[in-house]
Amino acid sequence: MNTLFTYVRDSFIPADQASLLIGDLSIQRGYGIFDFFKTLDHKPIFLDDHLDRLFHSAAQLRLPVGKTREELKTIIDQLQRKNNIPDSGIRITLTGGYSPDGYSLSQPNLIITQQPLLFPISPECPKPFRLVTWPHQRQLPETKTIDYLMAIWLQPYIREQGADDVLYHYDGVITECPRCNFFIVTDDDTLVTPARNMLKGITRMKVLQLAGTKLKTEARDITLEELRTAKEAFITSTGKHIVPVSHIDGHPIGQITPGPAAQWLNGQLYRLVQDISHPHSHQTTSK
After folding, report:
1. With contact defined as beta carbons under 8 Å apart, do 57 and 144 qualify?
2. Does 264 lie in the same domain as 151?
3. For the purposes of burial, counting CB atoms within 10 Å of the CB of 259, is it exposed (0-12), middle (13-18) or buried (19 or more)?
4. Which residue, 103, 127, 164, 236, shows the most beta carbons closer than 10 Å to its own?
5. What tens digit of pLDDT does each residue of 142-197 get?
6. Contact at 8 Å (CB) between 232 and 244?
């Protein structure tokens, strides 16, 4: 396999040689932000939306990015040329920097990594997930921080429950999965997703835009009790698009998994992404 390169502190370095000093606040205190997007056929998917969120997260944690949007795009392009991975996941991380006292903010360290895409994107929904709920509220929930302490700590519990992931709730109101947004379809065929106390994903935004052409949509609180009567449930993420949910806390969701809304939306999202990665593949001829 060819050597993979990583961008660290203004240099392209072989990934197996890239490092940070132990004084970085990401190591000392878990302080930092990141964003993650995919490339298909070397084309970044929804890059501007991801950069919007990156700069928002950086501002929330008082971390100057140190690069303009165009400079970041140039670095990403250079990294892609060096690694030559057509379908990949690219992660941009901004750490708290080398703190003089292990507590005060310093000049952030910018890291950009690229890896082959783990999950192929398909017009068909992947295998359904089983979720288990847990009471938890993330700090600064609208910021994409590197803090996944609870999600990782819960891994043994999730496996013990025979589940694939955890669904957080706070005071009986659903918020999110650690790496995914959550949706249900109600009895009256309304697509509903939480509106607060969670990270607003890029895929979530695209799904709401696509759904608006066919379905009634709402962003509002979803209670634990509502899960019992949902006709469908699914989660969304950059890596997997739409994953249907078959069970929550052992209780089945709806009658068919994946449900019609999840199937239709996943197909629409797939076509949207294909139009970006292969812009000339859907040409039509006029009569």
Report:
1. yes
2. yes
3. buried
4. 236
5. 999 999 999 999 999 999 999 999 999 999 999 999 999 999 999 999 999 999 99
6. yes
Q: How far apart (Å, rounded) are the C-alpha atoms in residues 243 and 180?
A: 10
pLDDT digits (tens, 9 = 90+) for 193-220: 999 999 999 999 999 999 998 999 999 9
Q: Which of 60, 85, 116 is the last residue of a domain?
A: 116
DSSP state of 127: S
- Locate 248 and state its tokens: 């929550």
- What stretch of H or E contains 6? strand 5-8
Residue 10 φ/ψ, nearest 5 degrees: 70, 15
- Cα separation, 103 vs 96, in Å, equals 9
What does the buried/exposed string (b/e) look like for 172-185 if buried means 16 or more CB atoms within 10 Å of the residue's CB?
ebbbbbbbbbbbbb
**Is the Cα torsion angle 43, 49, 52, 55 positive or negative in sign?**
negative
Q: Which pTM value belongs to this model?
A: 0.94
* Burial degree of 220 (CB within 10 A; 0-12, 13-18, 19+): exposed
Residues 140 and 262 in one domain: yes
- Whether residue 121 lies inside any domain: the answer is no
Burial 43-73 (b: 16+ CB within 10 A, else e): bbbbbebbbebbbebbeebebebebeeeebe
- Assess whether 32 and 133 both reside in one domain: no
Query: What's the Cα-to-Cα distance from 134 to each of 98, 130, 172, 229, rounded to whole Å?
Result: 35, 13, 10, 19
Task: Say if residue 176 is in the same domain as residue 79.
Answer: no
Could you tell me if residue 124 is inside a domain? no
Our measurement of the distance from residue 200's CA atom to the centroid of its chain's CA atoms, rounded to an integer in Å, reads 9
CATH for 63: 3.30.470.10
The candidate with the shortest Cα–Cα distance to 88, out of 113, 111, 54, 114, is 114
In what helix (H) or strand (E) does residue 272 lie, and over which residues does it extend? helix 260-277
Residues 251 and 170 in one domain: yes
Question: What is the C-alpha to C-alpha distance for residues 65 and 58, in angstroms, rounded to an integer?
Answer: 7
